[in-house]
Design goal:
Helix content is about 55%, strand content about 20%. By secondary structure, the protein is α+β, with helices and mostly antiparallel strands. A 6-stranded antiparallel beta sheet has the order 3-2-1-4-5-6, with no helix packed on it. It has a two-stranded antiparallel sheet with strand order 7-8. A hairpin with a 2-residue loop joins strand 4 and strand 5.
Length: about 250
């Protein structure tokens, strides 16, 4: 009696594994998709709007530059520069004192040691937009700070697209696992493996398109076309993988 019960428990345990995996894929896919939607529908458009507003902004005309949406340029003196050692890329804190006596600092991702005009005591000009220093003029050399809104949309857009594709891949893996557990007496790893391989290929293409395209709509269209190609390739590969001899023991329900 005891060996028979043990065998029954083992069979039940094996039958639950695909469902448990499918549930994990589904939960992770929904989570990644929600984060992707937030990045693509909210964060990226806001960053794109900031970029357009900054590039079209004009110099302030009101006394004191009271309008934060215009470009307010003030004279300043460099107090000192401080290298940010925690970062691999050259990054420096620029400590300055403005003409009205205000002391502040801004971070620039460039090697200030190579700029002769970036020495302590040198006169510079800093330009504010929406109450943040966006770029600094060291004489004829202009360096943008880390608050530069240009190209700032690329990071949330690329991350959102990556997470969106990854989330869709996990949802497809959940659907594949659920279907195979209900309709097939044996579930083989290739069914989920093919989905993950196709999703990974699409992730690489999508990230490349997002990072190198200046147009969000164009990057999405290219990624969509690549998705159709990947889907067609997976559909052609599925019958071959289903019929090929399997050297390993399948996962039984």
């Amino acid at each position: 009696m005891f060996p028979r019960a043990s065998c029954r428990e083992s069979t039940v345990g094996r039958s639950r594994r695909p469902r448990q995996r499918g549930g994990a894929y589904l939960a992770a896919g929904i989570l990644f998709s929600l984060v992707a939607a937030w990045l693509l529908l909210l964060t990226t458009p806001d960053a794109r709007d900031d970029e357009r507003a900054f590039t079209t902004a004009t110099a302030c005309t009101a006394p004191g530059g009271s309008d934060s949406d215009c470009l307010r340029t003030v004279s300043a003196v460099i107090d000192r520069t401080e290298k940010e050692t925690a970062r691999k890329t050259p990054s420096y804190w620029l400590h300055i004192t403005e003409a009205d006596g205000t002391s502040t600092r801004t971070r620039i991702e460039t090697n200030l040691e190579r700029l002769p005009a970036a020495r302590p005591g040198a006169n510079i000009e800093v330009t504010y937009w929406q109450d943040q220093i966006r770029y600094v003029d060291f004489g004829s050399d202009r360096r943008y700070t880390n608050a530069d809104p240009r190209e700032a949309f690329r990071m949330p857009f690329t991350t959102g697209l990556l997470l969106g594709i990854f989330g869709a891949t996990l949802l497809m893996a959940a659907a594949t696992t659920s279907w195979s557990s209900r309709h097939s007496r044996r579930a083989f790893p290739w069914q989920v493996g093919l989905t993950v391989t196709g999703g990974t290929t699409l992730v690489v293409f999508g990230v490349t398109a997002a990072w190198n395209s200046d147009n969000i709509g164009e990057a999405l269209r290219l990624t969509g076309l690549a998705g159709l190609v990947v889907l067609a390739a997976c559909a052609l590969a599925a019958p071959f993988l289903h019929r090929r001899p399997r050297g390993s023991t399948p996962i039984s329900k």
